[in-house]
Amino acid sequence: RPLPARLPVEGERNVLITSALPYVNNVPHLGNIIGCVLSADTFARYSRLRGWNTLFVCGTDEYGTATETRALQEGLSPQELCDRYHHLHADIYTWFRISFDHFGRTTTPQQTRIAQDIFQRLLARGFLLQDTLEQLRCEGCGRYLADRFVEGTCPFCAYPEARGDQCDKCGKLINAVELKNPQCKLCHGTPVVTPTQHLFLDLPKLEGRLEAWLESTWAEGEWTANARHITRTWLRDGLKPRCITRDLTWGTPVPLDGFRDKVFYVWFDAPIGYLSITANYTEHWERWWKNPQQ
After folding, report:
1. What GO cellular component is one of the record's annotations (predicted)?
2. In 3D, which of 184, 177, 195 has the Cα closest to residue 141?
3. 14-116+266-290 is classed in which CATH architecture?
């Protein structure tokens, strides 16, 4: 029988540990495990030895274009691909005896519920913008092409097999509409530049509040010099609105009229996976995530 869920305890030291969610479209290797899972596991074991009330959670990150691309290559639906690789990941971490209290995944009803709830709160508080983006659309496939679904000639170095997000030869980042001779990777047709509406997180509106919070956090001295430096660089250049929607089918649906054929961008969605994976472990997940006094 499964053990009852571990919850924060009044008067005890309560420790919540997460390690970066491994992306599901590949087999994990030693570098993945050493990069984040092993250090978190070591700390979880130390915490338990100290007698601290410890919860260690992780899970597979399953939405996004890379999953859709891999599923097409393997002749599977994205859900079938995720099911296969989730089990494979779980088996590998079990073999390595990684001591997760719960190893979950991001394709769950809790993920949809919590991500959409956070979105609705942002919308209600005026932290979202609407704007038009130009994107490549393949009329043959009847879809907008995400970065990885398009290939063409790099506008910087003329490499003929550049992706819609980056050139593997010169390393420069590319906006897909800048590619010369773009080609749909699915049907090899020629896509056309088409305007489409998207939603953006209004980060400039949050900048002042974020800076004040960072200054107080940095004063406590628990951030590494590297983390402080990277964050300062972002703020120095000024935060820009960030697009949080994509014209894909594989993802958390956007619950807003005019955008219901879109999903959330995986980098808006995936960090919420830490919350939803804990919510799959216990219905009292907020006691771990919204409970600073314990």
Report:
1. cytosol
2. 184
3. 3-Layer(aba) Sandwich (3.40)
Q: What is the pLDDT of residue 86?
A: 97
- Only one residue has tokens 């995986």, namely 266
How many Cα atoms sit within 13 Å of 207 on the Cβ side?
14
Q: pLDDT at position 57, please?
A: 98
102-105 and 192-201 as β-strands: parallel, antiparallel, unpaired?
Answer: unpaired
The residue behind tokens 């079938």 is 80
Write out pLDDT tens, residues 194-219. Answer: 999 999 999 999 999 999 999 999 99
C-alpha dist (Å) from residue 219 to 62, 67, 228: 37, 41, 11
Q: Give the residue carrying structure tokens 């029988």.
A: 1
Please measure the distance between the N-terminal and C-terminal CA atoms of the chain and give it in whole angstroms: 28
Domain boundaries, the chain: 14-116+266-290, 143-191
